[in-house]
Amino acid sequence: MNHHSVNVNLSHDLSGYEIVIGDGLLSQCGKWARKCLSKDVGKIVLVSNPKVFGFYGKQAEQSLRSAGFSVSHFLMKDGERYKTLRTVESALQFFAQTKLSRTDAVVALGGGVVGDLAGFAAAVYLRGISFLQIPTTLLAMIDASVGGKTGVNTSFGKNLVGAFHQPRGVLIDIAILKTLPRRELTAGFCEAIKQGAVGGRDLLARTNDYLSTGPVGEFSENIEDSNFKFETSNLILAHVQFKAKVVAGDEQESSNRADSRSRKILNFGHTLAHALEKVTEYRYFRHGEAVGHGILFAAELSKMLALCAENDVKLLNDVVHRAGPLPGLANIDESEVLGAFAADKKNVSGSLQMVLLKGIGKPVIVSERDIPRASFRTCLREFLQEPA
């Protein structure tokens, strides 16, 4: 299977960077890294977690060493709750002990948590060193690894501490997907549905058609089929192209933009998602699972406010359910969720900004000041009480 490439063109850096997508690319990551990085780079720290490193760490290290890099690895604990300043400090200490210089680099091998943390550590170490992304989850492949958002969670909110630090390249090896558990696949497909909802009917229909070809639970068997692998690669390509286009048009998510191509539209479904993650201490939901609930809530609120037609809301419900079952909401406290909204990073001038829909592919950014409080609370209460 031939590989695909997508260029991310950035306003402040005319060269931008390239995202490559293909089958079996991990074994070539050394040559790829050498192409992406300055010839002066001698040392690389590979940031991963024990589970991912157990599957792919040795292969990645061997390939990087064969390209002439001196390689060491830092393993963080697995899970969103470990994406913290404490873990960043441990990573930075490791960088210093390894004597990484400003001409060296960090490689993130893992899902969104690893990529966010490694990217943030690279952004602040020596005021910024190069880093590369090798995403190992579907969610990270189509979303988290693209666009340069890095950050950590704190007691006062999700991703409130972070930096924009673009990778020098992204390598997506779809062969890695065969080791993903079902919940991680569901999480990734929910992010794909989010992008389809704001990106347009063609992207959503393509995602829906793909999910209709077989249950997510049978993905690991199906991915061995060459035709299925081809379709998977093409779907990932379509989502990466969409994300790259949005990022190129609004690289740092300008606070004064509220148009339909603002980078803020990628936050569709994330207002409730971040609140759900925070009130459950990042232990109950995979990020994409929380986004799945957030998509459905934002769609229901859009319908309640007479912005979105019922048939579009039904379509989103159908597609989300095709992505797989989501954890239930029975034990989620409404008042705690409302409190979490107040700490959301999407607050601008003291008002939370939510992404709602006027229809599929027609996102609209709405200030909470323009949403009747009673309607919002009623929609939230009914949503949290609805059986799974």
Structure report:
The chain is of the alpha/beta class. It folds into 2 domains: 4-179, 3-Layer(aba) Sandwich (Rossmann fold), CATH 3.40.50; 182-212 and 251-385, Dehydroquinate synthase-like - alpha domain (Dehydroquinate synthase-like, alpha domain). The protein has 14 helices and 12 strands. The chain is globular. The model has no long low-confidence stretch (mean pLDDT 93).
Total count of strands: 12
CATH architecture of the largest domain: 3-Layer(aba) Sandwich
**In percent, how much strand structure appears in the residues?**
15-25%
**So what's the overall shape?**
globular
Q: Could you tell me how far the N terminus lies from the C terminus, measured between alpha carbons in angstroms?
A: 40 Å
Percentage of residues assigned to helices: 40-55%
Count the domains.
2
- Quote the average pLDDT: 93
Order of helices and strands: EEHEHEHEHEHEEEHHHHHHHHEEEH
What oligomeric arrangement do these chains adopt?
single chain
CATH topology description of the largest domain = Rossmann fold
Report the structural category. Answer: alpha/beta
Radius of gyration: 20 Å
- Major β-sheet annotation: 4 strands, parallel
Low-confidence stretches: none
Strand order of the largest sheet: 4-3-5-6
* CATH class (first level) name of the largest domain: Alpha Beta
Summed up, the helix count is 14
